[in-house]
Structure formats: C-alpha cells, structure tokens
Amino acid sequence: MADSPMTLSEHLSTQQAALSTEHARNVAAVLGRIGRVAAVIAQELAHAALRDQLGYVGGANATGDQVKKLDVWGHETMVSALRETGACAALVSEEATDPVEMDAGGTHALVVCADPVDGSSNLDVNGSVGTIFSLKPSRGKSPAGPAALGAGTDQIAAGYVMYGPATTFVYTVGRGTHGFTLAPETGEFLLTHPDIRIPKRGKIYGINEGNVNTWHPGQRAFVEYLKTKDKASGRPYSLRYSGAMVADVHRTLLDGGLFMYPADWSDPAKPKPKLRLLYEVAPMGLLVEQAGGRASTGFERVLDVVATEYHQRAAVILGSPEDVAMADEFYRR
Ligand code: FDP
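A: This is the predicted complex of the input protein with 2,6-di-O-phosphono-beta-D-fructofuranose.
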C-alpha cells in the first residue's frame, strides 16, 4: 500500500532546515496556524450564503475597495489566530490602514502581510477566492509594522490558500514551492503537489483584457503577439481569467503561461497599478520564482521592488520563465 501523504505540519518540520534556526520555530508556528485558519475560512465560505454572510458591509478599505462582510470577518479571524501564536509581532492586512501590532516580542518574531480574503468580487457568485500571506523578520523592532516594508527579497516565507472545489495550501520557505489539499473529514492539509515546477513555456495567458486601452504600448503589443496565429511557436495562446488572483496564479503555476495585471498607463506620467505589493504581488513573486518561474513588473524583477508604503501597488507579469522574459522584451522595445 502507498504511504499516506505527509501532513502540512510534518512538511513544515522538514523545511525548517532551510531557515536560520532562530526563525524556524516561529515560521512553522505561523504557517501551521494559517493552515488551521484556512480550514475555518473554507468552512465559513461554504456556509456564507446560508448564514447571510455575503454582500457588502458598506464602506471602503485602506485601498479604496468596497468591503464585503467576509473581508471583515476574515481579517478579524486572522488577527486573533496570529496573536495566539505568540510568534507574530505585527500584521499588515488589506483590511486595516495601519499595521495591527501584537504583543509578541523578541528578536525573532515575525511580521505577516496578508490579504485574508482575496478576489472578493467572486464571493457572491460562488467563484474561487483565496488568502495570500508573506512573512518577514521583525528584527526585534517596536513598533514592528515598518519591518514589513523594503524589498520582496526579505521575505522568509510566502504562500496562498485557494478556496475552490478543493481547498489548496501552497507555500515556500525558499526551498521550492509545495502544495497541499485539505482533507475535509480530518481538517488536515496533505501534500499533493510536492516541489511544483512551472513549465518553461505555457499556452495560456490570464489578464483583464477589458483594460486593453489603458495598457503600456509594450503590454498591448505583447498580448497582440500572444493572440497571433503561429503554429511553430504555439500561438495563439488561450485566455483564461477568473478574476481572483489566487486562482489565476494557481493555474499558472501548474499549467504554465502567464498571469498579468499591468498598470493603467492612461496618464504615462503617473502609471497606476492595481494589485498590492506586500500581500499580493511580492508573495506570489517568491512562490513563482521558487517554482522555477519569473515575476516582473515589465521593468524590473518583482522581488526587487522596494515597498515604502503598506498598501503600495505594483504591476505584475508572472509565470513561465520564457513567457515572462518575452513580455519584458516587449516592454523594452
Ligand atoms: P478583487 O478586486 O475581487 O479583490 O486584489 C484584488 C483582485 O480581486 C485580485 O484578486 C484579482 O486578480 C483582481 O483584483 C481582479 O481585478 P479586476 O476585477 O480589475 O480584473
């Protein structure tokens, strides 16, 4: 009989060797706790329509998005879970203007950046949504929130949870990208996608093409190229777009190709990206690179972009290394 698959907590202990010993215990504590929160979020999502938890609260969050009831609930659930770990010094969340400072002290406490319920426009139509998270060292700073700023290369772990037909937990501590599936009967995440390797090239691109008239000319030319028939180079690519970053990145990691959310260049003096750097773009950048892919803004590597504000936005083109390299080339022309 085949061995039973490794659980998330067993896997976390095998990965601890990748981390400096001081951080290893805290990282495992925080990631394990996020896994448990994810199982609770999955349950809540399954019952949301029955419990009158769909729809808007009335009001906008720190980045101006309309807030849904599940966004608020997800934020509060994440705050109390992370507080309980004693390993998290602050949480930067999409749903709070300022970092939520926690009591955990010590040089090796962590700062977590998270979007507890990402892709919330999909909630009311029973589409996939996700949770995205990123861990950085607090370096014993107090307040700890500012330690979340800086480059994506400072992340010591990152991951996401996708709530789809199954609940999937994907994470990295800088030693490959690994995927788990929730066994609902036990509440355990089991290793189903060890060491994900993104194909070098894909056949699919995901982008909100309704925004085509706002794109940088290089972006427009690149998508035009992807749609142009050429048997030898496998074009045209197919378009798939779910509208939830986690679902679109998950497909891209497994099947290859591209997920792109370019900036709005209507005013070339002031390009306006949409997705948030600290809890969307940078963690996905690390996961994709750890799976052998690339993540770029069109002008530079995502992980090199320095965050100076908690809710800073960044453009992103991520996926198969050869596809992303080609996109960068179109931006340079
Ligand atoms: P949402 O606004 O529904 O929360 O970050 C937000 C996000 O979803 C991403 O998950 C998704 O990739 C993107 O925005 C979708 O934006 P568009 O509706 O503009 O395509």
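The pocket of 2,6-di-O-phosphono-beta-D-fructofuranose is lined by residues 65, 118-121, 208, 243-245, 261, 275, 280 (CB under 6 Å). The two ends are 56 Å apart (CA to CA).
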